[in-house]
Amino acid sequence: MGRRSDAATLEREHAVMAMFIGCATTDQIAQKVGISQGTVNVIINRVMKRRRAERDELGDFALEQMLDQIDRLMGTHYVKGVKGDARSSEVVLKLMDRKAKLLGLDQPTQTEVRITQRSELDDAIEELLGTLGVQTPEQVQ
């Protein structure tokens, strides 16, 4: 693509996105810009994908910067905390907590529980379900 067609493409993308952000329908955009609705959708998807990639890249950069700042602050307070400075110890613990959150290390662990023993309560529930005409999972299989 030459510079002239690149400029025209960017101008068309800008026009489409401005109308899209302004809540115009794809039909309205297509008529105004002089392209098909399919092309409008392609342009919107292409621009959104490009913006998503830029946002992800910016987010990664911001995360790296924040982690670097935490590491520098941690270095300042860690030695003092180990030597008994209570305030520095608190700062280090808060920094460690923040770092864990940023890295997603504080996410809950999903656990699957299977009950292998039946009780009288299970029998009573099954009997009640039978009375109501509801099949239990065991009966369905």
From TrEMBL:
InterPro entries: Sig_transdc_resp-reg_C-effctor, Tscrpt_reg_LuxR_C, WH-like_DNA-bd_sf
GO molecular function annotation: DNA binding
GO BP terms in the entry: regulation of DNA-templated transcription
Superkingdom field: Bacteria
Domain HTH luxR-type: 23-50
Pfam families: GerE (PF00196)
Protein name: HTH luxR-type domain-containing protein
